[in-house]
Amino acid sequence: MEPVLRLGIQKEGRLSERSLEFIEACGIDYSRNKTRLKSTASNFPLEILYLRDDDIPKVVADGVADIGIVGENVVVEKQETVDIIERMGFSRCRLSIAVPANAPYLGPDSLNGKKIATSYPNLLREYLVGHGVLAEIHEISGSVEIAPSIGLADAICDIVSSGSTLMGNGLREAEVIFRSEAVLVGHRHLSPAKQEILNRLLFRIKAVSKAENHKYIVMNIPNEAIEEVTRLIPGMKSPTVTPLAEPGWSSLHSVLKEDTFWDVIEQLQAKGAQGILVIPIEKMIL
Ligand code: PRT
Ligand code: ZN
């Protein structure tokens, strides 16, 4: 039988759609079957297992799946032996301690003697021990943010992204204890055949994440600005410059990193760039 790589992803929840989109962007076709327990790709040796996110680290550690996509918060909390192979760049969030908005808070010491509700006892314990705080950890599996208002705890430790859930429950973020994003995890000992499939998949994953973090940019610039603009946006090797019909002007094509985007656009305008077009890139292979 041909070797097949088994990928565990979240069946339903915040990671599901983005995980599947990522696989599709890697050019992998599979049928999204109704029961959604397992899919087999038609054009790549990959099987997709649909799981609860909490189970993914153990399933990969045990070798039932070879790799998985899961929040780093869950990986670290579960303490299973898996390797983090790649950071996926989506589902960014933080694990934070929050206290009632009107309660005094003067730093970690203020948590001494308090009861903190969380679904992340291991990460929280590590933080408390590291800061010499003696507090009671009250483990609950959901609706953590209502714990203080119903008298179940004095504070909470939960995932925050926009912060609106905390605000809506009269809480304020006191400490960020962990920053997370979706990660690709792998079993420690893959067979050489599976490792080879993983390498092929990783090549594609890297091309897709690179593309998502870059934009293709086209603009018209006065010829005297070519040198300075090239320094600003060197692109993959150097920008493509072609003369326009109008004398003294050129069209310049390059790629630009998403995180420096607005700064660079402002500088380009200051150098006289006009008609700037910014286009998403589908794949990027260096
Ligand atoms: O059913 P299953 O067990 O598979 O899913 P789940 O309910 O345990 O997980 P799910 O789908 O809620 O989250 C999966 C992963 O998404 C988490 O492990 C994180 O890595 C990541 N993630 C990103 C988040 C959030 N953002 C997030 N905002 N996980 C949870 N939240 C919740 C948080 O618990 C809180 O209730 O959203 C609320 C806070 O959001 P804001 O925007 O109001 O701050
Ligand atoms: Zn879960």
How does the SSE layout of this entry go?
Elements: E1 5-10, H1 16-25, E2 38-40, E3 46-51, H2 56-61, E4 67-71, H3 72-78, E5 83-87, E6 93-100, E7 115-118, H4 121-130, E8 136-139, E9 155-160, H5 164-168, E10 171-180, E11 182-186, H6 192-212, E12 214-222, H7 226-232, E13 240-243, E14 249-257, H8 261-270, E15 274-280
Parallel strand pairs: 1-3, 1-4, 7-8, 7-9
Antiparallel strand pairs: 2-3, 4-11, 5-11, 6-9, 6-10, 12-14, 12-15, 13-14
Bound molecules: phosphoribosyl ATP and zinc ion.
Architecture overview:
By secondary structure, the chain is an alpha/beta fold. The protein folds into 3 domains: 5-89 and 181-211, Periplasmic binding protein-like II (D-Maltodextrin-Binding Protein, domain 2); 93-180, Periplasmic binding protein-like II (D-Maltodextrin-Binding Protein, domain 2); 214-280, Alpha-Beta Plaits, CATH 3.30.70.120. 27% of the residues lie in helices and 32% in strands. It contains 8 helices and 15 strands. The strands form 3 sheets. A 6-stranded mixed beta sheet has the order 2-3-1-4-11-5. Strand 2 (38-40) and strand 3 (46-51) form a beta hairpin. The longest helix has 21 residues, at 192-212. It is flat. Bound molecules: phosphoribosyl ATP (PRT) and zinc ion (ZN). Phosphoribosyl ATP binds next to helix 3, strand 9 and helix 5.
